[in-house]
Design brief:
Elements lengths: L2 E3 L26 E7 L12 H6 L11 H4 E5 L5 E6 L1 H7 L5 E5 L10 H5 L7 H5 L7 E6 L37 E6 L15 H10 L3 E6 L2 E6 L7 E6 L4 E3 H14 L3 E4 L12 H11 L3 E5 L18 E6 L3 E9 L4 E5 L12 E4 L15 H7 L5 E5 L4 H10 L4 E5 L17 E4 L1 H12 L5 E11 L27 E4 L3 E4 L14 E4 L2 H18 L5 H10 L22 H4 L6 H4 L4 E2 L7 H7 L4 H8 L21 E5 L4 E9 L5 E8 L4 E6 L2 E4 L5 E10 L8 E9 L4 E10 L6
Parallel strand pairs: 6-10, 6-12, 7-10, 12-13, 13-14, 14-22, 17-18, 18-19, 19-20, 26-33
Antiparallel strand pairs: 1-11, 2-4, 2-5, 3-4, 8-9, 15-16, 15-21, 17-21, 23-24, 25-27, 27-31, 28-30, 28-32, 29-31, 32-33
Helix pairs in contact: 6-12, 7-8
Length: 747
């Protein structure tokens, strides 16, 4: 039996913080609120000098005493040593000269709101796209995964109507009353476990299901972090659960799950598992997804966690939305303080309130070069190193929580996890079992250099809570699988990226130890987490536009995606913090509200895939395996894969010019005019005819032609990228362009 390992499974999206510190409006254009951190006072505050007077003493002499009250914002008495004041950058520089001053910076914008990834995606209660789409009401999302924890509060059916009349599924949960208007069906498809149930034994399925369509749950958090109201992307949609995995997934079980989901009448299928790229007729997730697409069902799949390698993307058929992973603007901060007072910022969800940060001796099992597994903190390596009572430095190999369990079992007091080079700057907020911080590869190099510089290295872990406002988000996670597609190089994959790092979602049990609060939520990371985000977005679009085909929904998602981060700079790759290429981002980062009104869509009818499949040089039998009917490719027309009416362009270009056509359908305004704007890929001339599209009615279709020519004076590079955007007075419809050069034909 062929087996597929679940794509690295990781976590949903909840985040809210307990306090909001709004930046004060400055009285003058150059004034801004700063939080000023101070050294503790040598002695108690006297009656003649109260705390506020002491704080005021740090204000620069240039500020008149009569203005103190208007400048001081807060004098903190309990939470920290310091105050907040309205200052200019010059005044802050002057303040730095005073004894007792530590630092000053503008406050981050922290918010009390619902689960953070919906908010990060622009979804807000009672307004905008969430309201317009009725929160996905009436749409059925089929989750193929490891089962469900049905009594979790995320799966309450409060406010949810009964399933639509078309629903034909069944509930195998025991008792059957565990199914409700939220979980309308649950079935089990693991051949080797005939006596099993749909109950989730790993947590992965519970997590992905609540990410896609969990109901509103107040007080979701882990150790108080990311505290707020959790919700899935489509919180009022129905869930149909198909348990096809335990710790691994059999292709036969997965196919059975897809088959049943189609029969049951789901609208969206979410699949956070898969293998490597191979011909679609021999790859059972794309094969099953093809049949679903023919029945009008939208299929969303994880891209895989094999990044940053190129050609690592899976689930890469054009009838699947292939989803990569990106970061959000939230971090669950934990830092490692070294004995040289160097503080390195990382992340950890394990942050007990009563923990007293302590310097422990720092030990690195990887210094034993004779043991190839020592750096990864395997049990034998830990036992041979002597880690008891020490902070242990481990290189990321095993899952972070597993490494912590091993370190704790060996007597370690704390742990620092550092990335290997290919994981770059991607850090994760795991619910560890001991004080820990996950740091970047660059910080790991710094720690090793420090350890080599002293005979008695030490380190302590500090917890810094939840922070929101990272303007470098979104960025592509280093682990997110990359294109090009091996099975079809003329189709750009992945299609899109969405939140997939440190996602908070439902979990079968509490991950908190020795606490009075037992919140059943957990953080996970991976494309397994980004996929259900997009499944939820597809459900919202299906609710708002029930007549749209799966291809139209995919087009709307792709052509409205964001190509820049919150700082309005190109989305970065966390491998190296350089701009990410299109083989990492696809069309960009999902923007659900814009996808609801895309202007134009690139639609594809199921029959249009036949010339595409024949053009891949599949035999008649191989094409027939996908279509489930006889096909004669000598009779059918053949097209190169780049000719499929896809919302992006992936061109394999040599010395010969190539020309392709695209057809767009007007779903915006009846009378509208679009003009083309081209960002030329390096070394390529891109020409579009016509350069203006004039529509006179809704649903009108117009066709344009694109010609790609390799320039004679082009740089000697293996690939290049650009974009093609149709713009009207109201809409911007963007398609990324990826060009891979045939090196043997370089001019």
């Amino acid at each position: 039996m062929a087996l597929m390992v679940i794509s690295t499974l990781f976590c949903l999206f909840s985040c809210c913080v307990l306090a909001t510190i709004a930046r004060e409006v400055p009285q003058k254009s150059n004034l801004e609120t700063y939080i000023v951190r101070l050294e503790p006072r040598d002695g108690p505050v006297t009656e003649s000098e109260d705390l506020e007077s002491w704080h005021r003493s740090f204000l620069p002499a240039t500020i008149e005493s009569t203005n103190y009250d208007s400048r001081m914002v807060y004098s903190y008495r309990n939470v920290m040593q310091g105050f907040a004041a309205k200052l200019s950058p010059e005044e802050v520089k002057e303040m730095q000269k005073k004894k007792g001053f530590i630092s000053a910076r503008p406050p981050e914008r922290l918010s009390l709101h619902t689960t953070h990834s919906p908010s990060f995606l622009g979804l807000q209660q009672n307004v905008g796209f969430w309201k317009d789409s009725n929160y996905g009401k009436g749409v059925i999302i089929g989750i193929l995964d490891s089962g469900i924890t049905p009594d979790h509060p995320s799966f309450s059916d409060d406010g949810i109507l009964p399933p639509p009349a078309k629903w034909k599924g069944k509930c195998e949960l025991r008792p059957a009353s565990l199914c409700n208007n939220k979980i309308i069906g649950a079935q089990h498809f693991i051949q080797d476990d005939q006596n099993g149930t749909s109950a989730d034994e790993t947590g992965h399925g519970t997590h992905t299901a609540s990410t896609a369509a969990g109901n509103f749950v107040k007080g979701a958090n882990v150790y108080g972090n990311a505290n707020g109201t959790a919700a899935g992307v489509a919180p009022l949609a129905h869930l149909a659960i198909y348990k096809v995995c335990s710790t691994v997934c059999s292709e036969s079980d997965v196919l059975a799950g897809i088959d049943t989901a189609i029969e049951d009448g789901v609208d969206v299928i979410s699949i956070s598992l898969g293998g490597t790229s191979k011909p679609f007729y021999d790859n059972y997730v794309p094969l099953g997804a093809y049949s679903a697409m023919e029945k009008g069902i939208f299929v969303s799949c994880s891209a895989g966690n094999e990044g940053p390698d190129y050609f690592s993307v899976g689930n890469d058929a054009p009838w699947i939305l292939t989803v990569g992973a990106s970061t959000m603007d939230r971090k669950i901060r934990a830092s490692a303080m070294l004995g040289n007072n160097k503080k390195l910022e990382g992340e950890s969800a394990f942050q007990p309130k009563d923990y007293a940060s302590t310097m422990f001796p720092l030990v690195y099992p990887g210094s034993n070069k004779s043991d190839p597994f020592a750096a990864y903190c395997f049990p034998d390596s830990l036992n041979n190193t002597g880690v008891k009572g020490k902070t242990v430095l481990c290189e990321r190999g095993l899952p972070g929580v597993t490494m912590g369990e091993l370190v704790k079992a060996a007597g370690g007091a704390a742990m620092i996890i550092i990335n290997p080079e290919d994981r770059g700057y991607t850090t994760e907020a795991d619910a560890h079992v001991l004080p820990a911080a996950h740091l970047s590869y660059v910080d790991g190099v710094k720690i090793k250099a420090y350890m080599n510089s002293t005979k008695l290295p030490k380190a302590a872990i500090f917890f810094n809570g939840t922070a929101i406002g990272d303007d470098q988000a979104p960025a592509v996670a280093s682990f997110s699988s990359r294109g090009p597609s091996e099975a079809s190089p003329g189709i750009l994959k992945p299609d899109i990226v969405g939140p997939g790092v440190s996602i908070l979602a439902a979990w079968p049990v509490s991950v908190e130890n020795n606490t009075n609060t037992k919140s059943t939520f957990n953080f996970l990371s991976g494309t397994s987490m980004s996929c259900p985000h997009l499944s939820g977005v597809a459900a919202l679009l299906k609710s708002a536009h029930p007549d749209w085909s799966p291809a139209a929904i995919k087009s709307a998602i792709m052509t409205t995606a964001d190509s820049v981060n919150l700082e309005k700079k190109p989305i970065a790759d966390q491998l190296n913090l350089l701009p990410a290429d299109v083989f990492a981002t696809g069309a960009g980062h999902v923007n659900p509200s814009r996808a609801n009104n895309p202007g134009l869509v690139y639609d594809i009818e199921p029959k249009e895939y036949i010339p595409y499949l024949c053009g891949l040089n599949y035999t008649n039998r191989e094409v027939g395996m996908l279509l489930q009917r006889h096909v004669n490719c000598s009779v059918e027309s053949r097209i190169p894969d780049s000719q499929l009416n896809y919302p992006s362009f992936s061109i394999v270009l040599g010395a010969t010019a190539q020309t392709y056509t695209r057809t767009v359908t007007n779903v915006g305004e009846a009378d509208s005019v679009y003009t083309v704007n081209i960002v030329q890929p390096r070394g390529v001339s891109v020409n579009v005819e016509p350069d203006t599209l004039k529509f006179s009615k809704l649903h009108e279709k117009l066709t344009y032609e694109v010609r790609f020519i390799r320039l004679a004076n082009a740089p000697n590079v293996s690939a290049s990228q650009g974009s093609l955007t149709w713009t009207s007075d109201k809409y911007s419809v963007r398609s990324p362009i990826a060009v891979t050069f045939i090196t043997s034909e370089l001019l």
